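tool=predict chain=A
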Amino acid sequence: MAEPFKNLIDTEVVRAIGHHLKRVDPGFDRRGFEARALARLDTLELKARVLQVADALVATLPADVDRAAGLLEASLGPPGAGDDLSLLRISERGLAGWAVWPLTEAIARLAIDAPERGLAALHAMTQRLTAEFAIRPFIVRHPAVSYATLARWVKDPSAHVRRLVSEGSRPRLPWACGCKRWCSTPRRRCHGSPRCRTTPASTCGAASPIT
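tool=predict ok
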């Protein structure tokens, strides 16, 4: 029988996050983080697990946004090479793969009022997994800064950053953050990529890059 999808975020992943944050900041409260993150974790489904771990990060990282974001960035492993991130895993060099999802959600909470810093952190994180969901609150709260950033990212050397421009700005998805602003106009074009097709808002989430 296949492993339950929710186990992509499990005790081992939480402890790896704690380990790598302690590695880059000896003062990090690893014990407090893990206690919060692991509380009844086995009773939760995948998205709830991600959010609980993110909340634990917010509770234990420094209050200073730049320092907190810097520690999360420093905990990351090497960025993915090529187009496929599916083989990235946690290693001695840092976090990658599914472990990065809670980090992106933590940034969406910690840095929502410091969009330039938050988006810079998501730029790094999306090269280890994806920041598709975490970027949406920034677009809603800070559309001018976010869209200007996405316009620059269209020419980014990383294919994963360029992909985030399309994935992060397309109409909302059923499992995403529920930002109603995506469907407030009759038609919507993925910002930043002229090769994206426009799609009626009634088919919310259908916009995708033409390859």
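Confidence is low (pLDDT under 50) at residues 174-211. The first strand starts at residue 187 and ends at 188.
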